[in-house]
Task: structure prediction
Amino acid sequence: MNLMTARTGGLAALAIVVAVAPVGFSNSYFYDVGVNAMFNAIVCVGLNLLIGYAGQISLGHAGFFALGAYGSGILTERYGVPAIVALTLSAAVVGILAFAVARPILKLKGHYLAMATLGIGIIIHIVLKTEAGITGGPDGMSLGNFKMLGFTIKGDQMWYWVTGVLLIFAVWLSLNLIESPVGRALRAVHGSEVGAEVVGVDTSSYKVLVFVVSAVFASVVGSLFAHKNGFITPDIGSFFGSVHFVTMVVLGGMASVYGAVVGAVILTLLPQLLAVVEQYEAMILGVIMMGTMIFMPKGLLPSLMIKLKSREAGR
Amino acid sequence: MSLLKVEKLSKEFGGVHAVEDLTFTVETGHIHSIIGPNGAGKTTLFNLITGVYTPSSGRVLFQDRLVSGMKPYELAALGMSRTFQNLQIFFNMQAIENVMVGHHLHLDRRFLPSLLRLPQVTRRDRECRDYCAGLMEFVGLGKYLDADAASMPYGALKRLEIARALAAQPKMLLLDEPAAGLNATESREIDEVIKKVASSGVTVVLVEHDMKMVMGISDQITALDYGRKLAEGTPAEVRANPEVVSAYLGTNG
Result:
């Protein structure tokens, strides 16, 4: 029962924050940053299922994000496919690709898994860069608005509301999964693989499943990002992009859905606030990552929750 | 009727024969203990039976079906579950969730209904929670229903593993040193739990060093030394066997 109220309460709080935040938005630039923060948040909610809950790492998710973006770009611009069909097809292809690579690489653990996923991300990045005939190469490609059923999503404000609804939907899906038998099995894989196996959990299949789910999350957001931005370059799939996503998850809180959202929002806003020191962004990210690991390895949100709880208990 | 048959089973680790040419059977409904000095190959044997290791040679039959080479999760589906000498608890989860993972095979675990939180999934899951709370009471963990696994003492975690294994509703339960590291009182309580499990119709295979417990509850004992079978029989027969005595106590001179 407690869980039920925490669940609906959390979703309601998120909805309120999304709805109320624009009160402080004085121009469309704020909406633009807000949309990007929520795009990142959705990717991180998916990635957190893999990293935080199932205990696997991926340093290649920007690659899946970029594949979604380019899939949509190529299908809509070159072949005139409707945007929603292009998004779905791209997500399906990314899902199949993730499925194909997942079984061999998820046999690996720790550093080896990190290296293998890193490799996949880099390969995707290179292919997007060099296959200029299809992707436009390093110069990038532009694409049109997202149209669906005679309705066009355009303008930062409209994108903000669409993305807000999608974020709440993504959080809802993620919470559902975690609280289901499937999600319990995923967390058990993190706890002890052999312990889970001997009571009937097919651990490799679950690892593959969560890898595919998180890749599809990234792909869908990539497609939307491409339409929103109107222009994409291969660098959205760079190694730095993948590290960015992982840092968001780690900072916000592993194995915490809302933590992933918080981490994504903070790290999207930070460069805006520190625009002056742009050339040091990578360094600042590194410092944040190290600081989080050393001082609050559970991440921002879970650490705060623990502190709050112990304060309440102290009373 | 025999539930488990182990035939000429061997496992080598780089030239070391951890288990060698071992043959024995476990009868349905029995408490069957495997004893032997440290390094005799007991845990390796468990890992071979439950699919954690694949045998170098020989075979394992469960309900007359060849199961050697199968994965642990496939064996769990056939009705075999186990505990571990060195705990394999999900420390990132609540105690009751640990037990609920044990019930995994009996739940609706389709992906889409889970993702959409369909009512049938949540209803089955609530029933599962009640069922697992019952199992925790059964093994004497009633006061840990709301606890995180990470906050529980060692003795309680041992029982939590038993509850998790029982949640899979096995036909055969393999317990790897359930009393190791427990004090006399806790050890007696585990003893009671094992008897209750056996009387509920589950066949128990037990690895244990606590001879008082083994001699008290076993129907059948197999004694190992250096991976080979040293003796087998009822507790009285095994206790009287001179080879067993010398393996445990050493020979004179």
